[in-house]
Amino acid sequence: MQTKSLPNGPNVTKRRLWEVIFASSAGTVIEWYDFYIFGSLAAIISTKFFPPDNPTAAFLSTLATHGAGFVARPFGAVVFGRLGDMIGRKYTFLVTLVLMGGSTFAIAFIPQYASIGLMAPVLLLVLRVLQGLALGGEYGGAATYVAEHSPDNQRGRYTSFIQTTASIGFFVSILVILGCQYTLGKSAFNDWGWRLPFALSGALVVLSYFIRRNMDESPAFAKLKKEGNLSKTPLRDSFKSRDNVKLMLIAMFGAIIGQGAIWHTSQFYAQIFITKILNVEYGSAQTVMAIAVTCATPFFVIFGALSDKIGRKKVMMAGLLGASLFLYPLYQGMDRLVNGGTILQTVIKDTSKVTTFEDGKVITQTTVKLPNQQVDERTEVRLPTQTLWLLGLLVFIQVLFATMAYGPIAAFLVELFPTKIRYTSLSIPYNVANGIFGGCSPFVATWLGSLTGSKFAGVYYPIFLTAMTFIVGMIYIKETAGKRLED
User: Fold this and answer.
1) What would the CATH number be for the domain defined by 14-342+383-476?
2) pTM beyond 0.85
C-alpha cells in the first residue's frame, strides 16, 4: 500500500484513503441493514402490529410506516447536516449510527398488537421515524467524508464504494433473515424469530462505533476549521444564495428523484411484486432478490469509475433512460415467467385449512387453527429452479439501471457545493428526493395496484419519476467530473 500522498487531491496516502472508505462503509452498511430489515419483513410485521381483521389494510399500513422513515429523512438532513458543517463530519455520523442502531434494537422488543393494542403500531412508528432521522444525516456525512479524502480525478471511483453500502446492507438483511428462517423453521420464525434480525443490530452498532471513533476529520473540514472559516449558520447559508438553491433543485429534480425511484423499485417493489402479486413462496423470492442484488452490486463501483472517465451526467442519464423505457416490459416478463410457465406446487391457505395442489390436483388438505380466528387467505407458488434464475435476471437488470443512476451520484453531489455548507446542501435535496419520492415508491406502487386492480399499475409511478428526472437532468445538469473541491 502506498505511503506517499495521492496526486490530484488532498494530502492523503492511499492506505489512509482505504481506511476512510472501510470505516465509513462499514458503519453505513450497518445503518442500511438496520433500515431495510423493516422493509424485508413488512409482510410479517403487518400481522404483528396491526389489527388482523383486514390483511390488505394491515400490509398497506406497514408500508406506510416503512415510508414514514423515509419521510423523516429530510428532517434528519436538516438537523445532522447543520451539525456536520458546524462541528464536523466524524462526530455527526457517530451520533447517527448510535441513534439508528438503538432504534432498530428497540423494535425487537415491542409487544404485539394482541398484547397492547394501538400502542404497538404507535411505538413502531416512533422508532421508524427515529431511524429515518438518523439515515437522513448518515449518507451526507459518509459521502462528504470519503469525497473530501479522494483525488479529484478518481472521486467517482472511491465514493462509489459508499453507494454499494445500501445494496450490501439490503443483502445482509436478506441473508440474516433467511439464516434465521432456516435455523428456526418457518413457523418459529414467523412467531417470534423475526425479532432476531432487529436484536442483532445492537452488536453490529457497537462494533461499528469502535471502528469509527478513531477516525480523523476530513482534510477540507480541518483546513476550514483551522482558518476559522466554518459556517455558523449552514442551513441559512445554504438557502440565502439563489445560485446554491438552484443547484439543490437541479440536483433533486435532475438526478436524485429518478435515482431514488429506480433504486427502491428494483430492491423493494420488485420483492413485493414477486411475493404479494405473483405469490411466489417467500423464501424463494428472498433468494432471487439476494442473488440479483449481489450480482449487480459491483456495478456501482464500475459505473462510478466510468464516470471519472466519460462524465457523471452520461452515466446517470443512461440509467434513468433505461429504467423509464424498460421497467414496464421487465415486470410483464416477470408475470409471464410465473403465470405462463411451470408451477411445481401451489399452496392455498384460509382460516380452516391448508390445501396443496400439484398439476391442478389436490394432494394434501390439512385442517389448521389460526390464532384469534385470524382471516389468512393467501396463495404461494413454488417454481422450478430455471424459472427462479430467469426471474432473478429480470430483477438484476432493474438493479443494473439503479447502479448506473446511483454509482456516480455521491461524487456529483459533493462537487456541486462548497465545503463549508456541503454536508447541509448535499443532504437536504438527497434526502427530500429519496425520502419523499424514492422511499415511498413501494407504498405508492402497491396502493395504485390495490386501487386500480391492475398488477402493473404500480410500475407507472417509478416510470414517470425516472422519465421526468431524465428530461430535467439532460437540460439543466452540467458536468462536474474532475472538478477541484471548492472551499
Assistant:
1) 1.20.1250.20
2) no
